[in-house]
Amino acid sequence: xxxxxxxxxxxxxxxxxxxxxxxxxxxxxxxxVDELNSFVxxxxxxxxxxxxxxxxxxxxxxxxxxxxxxxxxxxxxDPQGREWKxxxxxxxxxxxxxxxxxxxxxxxxxxxxPGGSEVSALLHVCxxxxxxxxRRTVTLAAELPINNEVQKYINRLSDYFFAAARYANAxxxxxxxxxxxxxxxxxxxxx
Length: 191
What we know:
This protein is mainly alpha-helical. The chain has a single domain, classed as Cobalamin adenosyltransferase-like (Hypothetical Protein Ta1238, Chain: A, Up-down Bundle), CATH 1.20.1200.10. It has helices at residues 25-50, 54-74, 89-103, 118-143, 148-172, and strands at residues 12-15, 18-21, 112-113, 177-178. The model has no long low-confidence stretch (mean pLDDT 92).
């Protein structure tokens, strides 16, 4: 099998059910989801190398599978009447993971900067790319029909990356870096 087809040399690409320009809003949306998936893979590899974040690595690998499903759902030229890969269950499971990561992390009172451990910094990169994927998905949804579960999942996923980044720092013994000009913007948890 050859990796190149030459069919995109004129700026067009195939989507499920047709061909569109490579800068089409649909391609921008699923392409950004694909970019996010690559960063998640990098974060998972670095987390695995730490030897202390096995459960997090398993979550990230599952998220990669779901991001591929999201991209697949976004790639339909005409999504009407399609069988979707994404449903409400993955977003609900993300909420459980978020809650567990928050519970295992120190109280947060101020905004924080990306950093601490390398894993945490990479998870913050995932968070920001995820927010871009969400913006691209919202743009697509304003113009064309999509699977709304994808939009919900990507919205929840950026929260997951924030919570996972803080969890990684806590687990690895690295402090979050507070934004020094931040007021106290979060309430302490009641124990």
